[in-house]
Amino acid sequence: MAPAVDRRDRLSRLAWRASWVTAALVPAAFLTVFFAWPAAALILRGFFDGGSFDPGALGRVFTSTRTWRAIGFTLWSATASTVLCLALGVPGAWLLYRRRFRGVTALRTAVTIPFVLPTVVVGVAFGSLLRPDGLLGGLGLDGTAAPIIAALVFFNYSVAVRTIGTLWERLDPRLAQAAATLGASQLRVLFTVTLPALGPALVSAASLVFLFSASSYGIVMVLGQTRYESIETQIWFLTTQLLDLRGAAALSITQLIIVTAALWSSSRTQARLTAALRLQPAGSGSTPLRLPRDIVALGITLGVALLLIGLPLVNLAWRSLHRGGGLTTANYADLVTGSVAGSTLPAALATSLVTALAATAIAVPLGLIVALVASRRPRAAAGRRALSTLEALFLLPLGVSAVTVGFGYLITLNRPPLDLRSSVVLIPIAQAVVALPLVVRSLLPVLRAIDPRQLEAAATLGSPPLAVLARVELPHLWRGLGLAVGFAFATSLGEFGATSFLARPDNPTLPVLIFRLFGRPGAESYGMALAASVLLAALAGLTMAAAERLRPKEVAAW
């Protein structure tokens, strides 16, 4: 009798594992068709011509001065913004995650919202602030690289603060206290004890900021004014202006290498965050704000919140209510009644909302499946390595530019059985590919925070695996669903890179409409661009603020 029971148990375990493999095949198929295939087609387009190997396109592209100028500016601007984000982010992380004071939660939320704002809105906000007739126009920075760098820091500051702060708040404070007791100054403790312990978080933050800065297509498109070009804007130029698809493919390969290297570095260091450190429960090391000792950190963080983050957004809203030197709502009225290239604001807004909802409906269920599969706890080392590889593969779109995804669709999904160039589903699919990694990174920490003993106890009491999943894991998972939906919707709503390649001229999304308005001459078009940017920023900001309120404590960083 016992052998028969053992055989049934083995068959049950094999069937359960097979069901997880089958579940993983659904998002794997989606990612293969709508990410891996277009990316592979780009690589082949760069190296092959008419079926034969021909690296000539690479040679022609990389002998162009314009190409090297774009590569150089991409690397330089990403490096500069990374250095600034770390320099400003360390005191911000200390204040927001190691100190307790009234309003700290609101301040954390305020510095988080810029991360989900559409890049085209960020570009318009800094452009309106620094142009000759803007509030800071007297600084003479319009037309320089300074607005681009400032916008990149604005966009990525919260990434640095959150990545560093969530480790810092869990560091055991006793080591730093011991060093201080032995006579070490505050600065010496910082540089000899604290920063070395924060090394993995610093490297991880630097990798992520560099990655996001190197792929901020909308910011460079709006603020570059044709004087400054990144790899992505050069891809757009080769594709839309010169119809040089092979040259654009060659540049896409270059960007793929750069951002994948940054993502690989980030993934490697993330694995080390808790490997060599004795971490404490979140918030256990925080202490009340102490003045004047914390005055420097407080001053830097408030300066960033008020000047770098608050000023461009307030100025954007204020300028949207002006035209011809007077206070007016004409920009909003013209935006509602006027049209741009055959499209109106209500139509563009409806298109954006519908496509964002559709993208969310695609990304969230797929992300749920990926998170559930990747959160399994196999006993065998081979199984753990397989799940780690699976997780890395599904996070890979985070490191590949949306411009590359959109361009890849143009050269792959243009023939039966998947001729989707004129289909309305192509943009939501592209946006879902961009949002999927954020959904996974929102849900996985919630599942991994479940105490394994709780699962083992349920199984010991006779609950079958499906009952354990339904009664223990899924209730925990629902707690992170609000944040995942918020991330997916806000990201899709403001996505500009892939959408700029795929949107039809007569049916643009709101970010594409803003870019068109910004590029048209005249005070009326510029005023409508400002008004549309305010509306889009408000939608994205409110979405993310609501999602932040639903964020489980297990989800601390992206």
From TrEMBL:
Residues 71-264, 349-547 form the ABC transmembrane type-1 domain. It is found in: Cell inner membrane; Cell membrane. GO terms for biological process: transmembrane transport. It comes from the Bacteria. InterPro entries: MetI-like (IPR000515), MetI-like_sf (IPR035906). The chain crosses the membrane at residues 20-48, 68-97, 109-129, 245-264, 295-318, 355-374, 386-411, 423-444, 481-503, 526-547. GO terms for cellular component: plasma membrane. Belongs to the binding-protein-dependent transport system permease family. Keywords: Cell inner membrane, Cell membrane, Membrane, Transmembrane, Transmembrane helix, Transport. It is a multi-pass membrane protein. PROSITE patterns: ABC_TM1 (PS50928). Gene3D superfamilies: MetI-like. This is Iron ABC transporter permease. It comes from Tessaracoccus defluvii.
